[in-house]
């Protein structure tokens, strides 16, 4: 039986967030629908991050505290899963070992030096970028949090497209790898980029719309570079690679949103 939109939403929220959503189907059709719905989960995460940062700003908190709060929400709503994936991917890539050994390193529970450095730099970049936009206005900071979360989950949709193989026969990466048709991924990308542009337009300027759309496009390009490197290096994608791709897109989007 083909998966319904409800199946897709349950899969997206049940696997990409800690929200109490029960996944009722765990098959390729449900995974396809779920990864197509990933940007919707990103929207909810982004709105939560924007709400906390915006409320703190309106209560008189400084832009740095608002930025830290906005960065902490996606981490909390994913139990740090994507950040952990970013660190593990950095350890695997930085090890310089053959694919099989690198994948084994990524499965270990500890974090190596490459992972620690990458994690620290990524979080610093996110906080620094959000601090800058919150200093400009609370609205711009809140919108940046939304665009970043949206784009991060769009990167997951694109990474799940047909033609991107799994590196292992098991795990979440294998469950969702190559499930999304290329046309479906491109359609999700077009809708999300338009949504990011619309979010930027809320600031009241045409440049804001261009900046929002450009942030989504350039962030997905950065995530695509990492994805292709991981496929060459590991022979495919894993759950950790998906996390690394999402955090790369989130960070890149925030950096682009500081321009101008």
UniProtKB/TrEMBL annotation:
Main function: Joins adenosylcobinamide-GDP and alpha-ribazole to generate adenosylcobalamin (Ado-cobalamin). Also synthesizes adenosylcobalamin 5'-phosphate from adenosylcobinamide-GDP and alpha-ribazole 5'-phosphate.
Chemical reaction(s) catalysed: alpha-ribazole + adenosylcob(III)inamide-GDP = adenosylcob(III)alamin + GMP + H(+); alpha-ribazole 5'-phosphate + adenosylcob(III)inamide-GDP = adenosylcob(III)alamin 5'-phosphate + GMP + H(+)
The EC number(s) this enzyme carries: 2.7.8.26
Family (UniProt): Belongs to the CobS family.
Pathway per the UniProt entry: Cofactor biosynthesis; adenosylcobalamin biosynthesis; adenosylcobalamin from cob(II)yrinate a,c-diamide: step 7/7
Domain of life: Bacteria
HAMAP family membership: CobS
Top EC class for this record: transferase
UniProt protein name: Adenosylcobinamide-GDP ribazoletransferase
Top-level taxonomy: Bacteria, Bacillati, Actinomycetota, Actinomycetes, Kitasatosporales
Organism (species): Streptomyces aureus
Record's subcellular location: Cell membrane
Transmembrane segments annotated in the record for this chain: 33-52, 114-135, 141-159, 171-199, 205-227
Statement: the UniProt record of this protein carries the keyword Transferase: yes
GO molecular function, one term: adenosylcobinamide-GDP ribazoletransferase activity
Topology versus the membrane: Multi-pass membrane protein
UniProt entry keywords in alphabetical sequence: Cell membrane, Cobalamin biosynthesis, Magnesium, Membrane, Transferase, Transmembrane, Transmembrane helix
Swiss-Prot/TrEMBL cofactor(s): Mg(2+)
Main location class: membrane
